[in-house]
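User: Predict structure, ligand FE4-S3 cluster.
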Amino acid sequence: MYCFQCQETAKNTGCTVKGVCGKPEKTANLQDLLIYALRGIAVWAKKAEEFGINDKKTGLFVARGLFTTITNANWDDDCFVDLIKDALKRRDALKDKFIAVYKERKGKDFIETLHPSATWIPAGPDEFSEKAKSVGILATENEDVRSLRELLIIGLKGVAAYADHAAVLGLEKDEIYAFLMEALDSTTKNLSVDEMVAMVMKCGETAVNAMALLDEANTSAYGHPEITEINIGVGKNPGILISGHDLKDMEELLKQTENTGVDVYTHGEMLPANCYPAFKKYDHFVGNYGGSWPYQNKEFQSFNGPILMTTNCIIPIKADTYQDRIFTTGNTGYPGVKHIAERSENAAKDFSEIIELAKKCDPPQEIENGKIVGGFARNQVLTLADKVIEAVKSGAIKRFIVMAGCDGRQKNRNYYTEVAENLPPDTIILTAGCAKYRYNKLDLGDIGGIPRVLDAGQCNDCYSLAVIAMKLQEAFGLEDINELPISYDVAWYEQKAVAVLLALLHLGVKGIRLGPTLPAFVSPAVLNVLVENFDIKPIGSVAEDIEAMMVGK
Ligand code: SF4
Ligand code: SF3
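Assistant: Predicted complex:
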């Protein structure tokens, strides 16, 4: 195996024996083979596109396939074997369709040598493990080509996840699927460095589109998030803990638990659900329990009731703990853990087994109490725009620091807590994603009634932060988004954060600090391109970074 897609990769180089995340070699290899099969689909999809053959279902399948390979999303080898089989079937169906149309239109047979991912035919799944060894990341020998291809594929995984979340809520965009195909197909070709960089930038553009689509899907279904005090204590009833990013699962769980005597709590990235009008109305939606994903082992244990994982991050489950009361659904999976099946066209997912189990469980053990404030997504912040603009003009707010992104296990992430603690009191932190847990329970006060930590929501709600920045740019009549008093101190862990980073680059944001370490998949030469064009930099010491950010550096 060779995997370097996340921030905690071994020695910041690559995991080669077993993932630092816990991913076994076999799973990593199957994920590589799935990506290979998806690239094969993309080769035929690009060809088919020339004849106007576009297939939404294949686009969504590719998005879901990419999504399952995100760090801490799916650990179930059987699921990957099924996905590879399905991918090969879909690839060949597309191929047959293309070849038939080609013959009909051109009056001759299609003869062209294509990338092996488009033509490889295994005798059966027994061949998968062996084949996987020759098609992984290291199959691309040139370090810089590998770096640009992987930067693209890793960014695509994030885009695909957001596109899938939107599709769950009924919104899909052909352009996004078309780009997934174009980009995957491009990784089978010998492109120039400039062409590969252009493809990476287009991935940033598509990431903006995917986040905007998801924002539309979420807000049209559940209303605009509003300022909300979120309870972090516990009630007396048994509860179900729901984690991940999928709001449709949240909706269906809340409906099905109504009047059952079972309460609902959020964990990790589901926290922002507390701020949506459609969910706030439920009395049995008690609040948020615990923090971000690295603390699952401890917090899932003390929660006492069932846990529903709707998307990443699910981490390895320790033996004899909560194995029997954790459930996966959607694109998540874990061997030996019950998976709640997809909803059908007219029927919701069936959470009754989880609800029945909850009734037999003890109520959650209290681990903290009090409230935190959330709900500062674009619509809510824009209603406060006059106040914010006035505070900037009067000098009451000197700077905004965007500290969005992911949380992670590594100790050096204390950096983000310390930055939050030590930023001058005339600064506002703009956040989204699970990175917020490093400082969202600190008492950082407010500036004239505006809290010093404005939480826009999940990582995909970085879109809200971009909208807010663009509105401020307009309000202040600035030509360049970088003239705003905003600094970026972004924390990354997995591939959705890479998509967000590429989105920011596409929007022209420069001078982003990225930590706690720079991605291992960025080669020195590719890093040079990023530094020269976008002034990307690693984090440094807390004091030096704060000093620099305060003067816009
Ligand atoms: Fe290593 Fe991260 Fe890949 Fe896991 S996802 S195997 S920790 S690089
Ligand atoms: Fe967190 Fe996994 Fe990235 Fe959605 S839940 S931000 S790490």
